[in-house]
Amino acid sequence: MMNQLKRCALGLAAVTMAWSATAFSQAGGRQIINQAVAILGGGAFTDVKEIHTTGRFFSFNKGQLSGSDLFADYIKFPDMERTEFGREKNKSITINKGGEGWVFEPRDKEWGPQPAKQAEDFAVGFKTSFDYVLRFVLNHPQTTIQNIGSEVIDFKRADIVELRDAQKNRIRLSLDRQTHLPLKMQVRRADDAALREEIYANWHEFQGVMTPLLVIRSTGGVKMMEIRLETASYNTGLSDSLFAPAVTASK
Predict the structure, then answer these.
(1) Please, what is the average pLDDT of the chain?
(2) 186 with 175: CB under 8 angstroms?
(3) How far, in Å, CA of 214 to CA of 63, rounded?
(4) What would the pLDDT profile of 199-235 be if each residue is shown by its tens digit?
(5) DSSP string for 45-67
(6) What is the pLDDT of residues 43-86, one digit of tens each?
(7) Count of CB atoms situated within 10 Å of the CB of 235
(8) Nearest-5° angle of CA 222, CA 184, CA 43?
(9) How far is 237 from 48, CA to CA, in rounded Å?
(10) Which of 83, 121, 201, 222 is most exposed by smallest CB count within 10 Å?
(11) What is the C-alpha to C-alpha distance for residues 23 and 107, in angstroms, rounded to an integer?
């Protein structure tokens, strides 16, 4: 009987220690994320409803540079994005709004629907993007947050925080321990085994919002794209008509 009581006591102690460790991990993860959001701009960052950026992107095939072009990107939360590629009179344009998508190619001189799979991929990718996650997923009641350790990125010690959203997507953020700025984000979607990664660098402030001017994207460890921003502006009053296929000119 005494041995049974001892085993029960030891089991209870182990459960209590495990629960305490989990609670500490969750609290630590939340604290690290809160520090990052504060450095990113606090209320100025979280209150962003619209984003307009311009710059140049570089595409890669099997890790090798395969092309580059100018771009202008417009985002209006919660689910709209318009991206224009090329120069003024020779632009290709993609628009996504919720689960719908359209494409405009200058050679065709008309809009066409995106393939259903492409529009679906956009919707999932948008909801697991850096800008969306830190503004909408972070404080969702079904999101879990844990501090899962640290790593060294470019000689910088980074804390790793893992989020699981309501759809069970796994999102890992690596945050510079000194500056609290994001260095890297990894996403493994619940319905896709591919590991998607973004690396962030060259942070600058625009309208009180910290913005990475360099973003490097890879999938499965293979570099796919490099984005170099030249301008960024927030909450400029983008019209909903900009995200309809009838509009072809930049604003």
Answers:
(1) 89
(2) no
(3) 17
(4) 999 999 999 999 999 999 999 999 999 999 999 999 9
(5) HHT--EEEEEEEEEEEETTEEEE
(6) 999 999 999 999 999 999 988 999 999 999 999 999 999 999 99
(7) 14
(8) 140
(9) 11
(10) 222
(11) 58
Task: Let me know how many helices (H) and strands (E) the chain has, helices first.
Answer: 4, 13
Cα–Cα dist 178/251, whole Å? 39
Report the share of the chain in percent with pLDDT over 90. Answer: 80
| pLDDT at site 163 | 97
Mode of pairing for the β-strands spanning 50-61 and 195-206 = unpaired
User: Rounded to the nearest 5°, which phi and psi values hold at 27?
Assistant: -65, -40
Cβ-based neighbour number of residue 160 at 10 Å = 18
* Structure token pair of residue 75: 């985002």
CATH class of 2-79+142-236: mainly beta
CB atoms within 10 A of CB 98: 13
pLDDT, tens only, 114-155? 999 999 999 999 999 999 999 999 999 999 999 999 999 999
Question: Which tokens go with 72?
Answer: 């202008």
- How is the chain split into domains, by residue range? 2-79+142-236
Distances (CA, A) of 14 to 1, 7, 19, 26, 75: 20, 10, 9, 18, 48
Tokens of 102: 């359209």
The DSSP result for 115-164, as a single string, is PHHHHHHHHHHHHTSHHHIIIIITT-TT-EEEEEEEEEETTEEEEEEEEE
Cβ(113)–Cβ(102) below 8 Å: yes
d(CA 131, CA 126): 9
